[in-house]
């Protein structure tokens, strides 16, 4: 495994110029790059043709290999494979740490949900409960304004309906994909029913500051997640944790099979089920939201056990052997 060096994306790097047949790579002096290994390395990065202002690491072991601006004006990064592997390992380990923190965090959140009507903590607790139960993305003001796609903090009252103790969400999510989910929770339903009285075009997650209602931001939610879990977690960690749980449950329900071909089919089906629940493609679900150790355990004949009612301890037992 190569030792990585920290990339300085504002420093000297390589670039590219469009040609009739594709792109030509250039050094800091504007001269063509002829070194075969360097050209091969850059080609292997598969930098999207639409990116502009492309910076390419001059070093094969730079932790960031390329930076560019996509069509939406967002800065995008391509990382060294070793760096991505390390980050993924940290991400899945962090999700398991969240699983350990959730029982006590949920009790604190329930207390906030039962707090004063219109309070900030009550709105934040509502968001936490939805992250934990509906597996929502946290939301982006920019995406809501420019693309009409919504997440947790940009939901409107019209996106939620309440029937008895069940909260149903229906809204256009990332990339315009329709999102639909149902959560049965008495405390949550009571709060959502109250918030919806402000009208369909109002932000769902809001709190009353004097005579005004103020919406919550993604930063507000992430700060609250850290506060209630007493850990360095964010809204995205919920999707990673629940993605792994959904896959582990699906593999358990499909049952253990012995042949490699049958295992591959079952794993593909479990990944597809997870992708559907998260609103992702199977490729993204497998790469970003399913702990690879869940799949490794399945190949070894181990599946999620059924002890207790909470899936988080069961996931930790499966992966870490916790009692």
Walk me through the topology.
Elements: E1 15-18, E2 23-26, H1 36-45, E3 52-56, E4 64-69, E5 75-79, H2 81-113, H3 120-134, H4 141-147, E6 160-163, E7 166-172, E8 178-184, H5 186-195, E9 206-209, E10 212-215, H6 218-229, H7 235-254, H8 260-278, H9 282-289, H10 292-299, H11 311-320
Antiparallel strand pairs: 1-2, 3-4, 4-5, 6-7, 7-8, 9-10
Helix pairs in contact: 2-3, 2-7, 2-11, 3-6, 7-8, 8-9
GO molecular function: DNA binding; DNA topoisomerase type I (single strand cut, ATP-independent) activity
Family: Belongs to the type IB topoisomerase family.
Domain DNA topoisomerase IB N-terminal: 22-70
Mean pLDDT: 93
CATH architecture of the largest domain: Alpha-Beta Complex
Q: Give me the count of strands.
A: 10
Low-confidence stretches: none
User: Which geometry do the CA atoms define?
Assistant: globular
Helix content: 40-55%
**CATH first level of the largest domain: which class?**
Alpha Beta
Question: Over all CA atoms, what is the radius of gyration?
Answer: 23 Å
What structural class do you assign from the helix and strand content?
alpha+beta
Protein name: DNA topoisomerase
GO molecular function: DNA binding; DNA topoisomerase type I (single strand cut, ATP-independent) activity
EC number: 5.6.2.1
Organism: Mycetocola zhadangensis
């Amino acid at each position: 495994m190569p030792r990585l060096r920290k990339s300085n994306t504002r420093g000297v790097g390589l670039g590219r110029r469009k040609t009739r047949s594709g792109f030509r790579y250039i050094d800091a002096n504007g001269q063509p790059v002829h070194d075969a290994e360097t050209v091969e390395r850059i080609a292997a990065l598969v930098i999207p043709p639409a990116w502009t202002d492309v910076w390419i690491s001059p070093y094969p072991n730079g932790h960031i290999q390329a930076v560019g601006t996509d069509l939406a004006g967002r800065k995008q990064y391509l990382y060294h494979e070793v760096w991505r592997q390390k980050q993924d390992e940290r991400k899945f380990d962090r999700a398991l740490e969240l699983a350990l923190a959730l029982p006590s965090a949920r009790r604190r959140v329930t207390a906030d949900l039962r707090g004063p009507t219109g309070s900030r903590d009550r709105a934040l607790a509502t968001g936490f409960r939805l992250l934990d139960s509906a597996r929502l993305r946290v939301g982006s003001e920019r995406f809501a304004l420019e693309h009409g796609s919504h997440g947790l903090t940009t939901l409107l009252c019209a996106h939620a309906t309440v029937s008895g103790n069940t909260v149903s969400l229906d809204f256009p999510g990332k990339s315009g994909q329709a999102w639909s989910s149902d959560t049965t929770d008495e405390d949550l339903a009571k709060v959502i029913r109250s918030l919806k009285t402000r009208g369909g075009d109002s932000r769902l997650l809001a709190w009353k500051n004097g005579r005004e209602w103020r919406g919550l931001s993604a930063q507000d939610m992430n700060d609250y997640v850290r506060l209630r879990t007493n850990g360095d977690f964010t809204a995205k960690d919920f999707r990673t944790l629940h993605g792994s749980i959904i896959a582990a449950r699906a593999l358990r329900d499909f049952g253990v099979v012995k042949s490699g071909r049958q295992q591959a089919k079952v794993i593909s089906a479990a990944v597809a089920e997870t992708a559907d629940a998260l609103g992702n493609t199977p490729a993204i679900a497998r790469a970003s939201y399913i702990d690879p150790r869940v799949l490794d355990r399945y190949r070894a004949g181990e599946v999620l056990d059924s002890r207790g009612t909470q899936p988080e301890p069961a996931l930790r037992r499966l992966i870490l052997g916790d009692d």
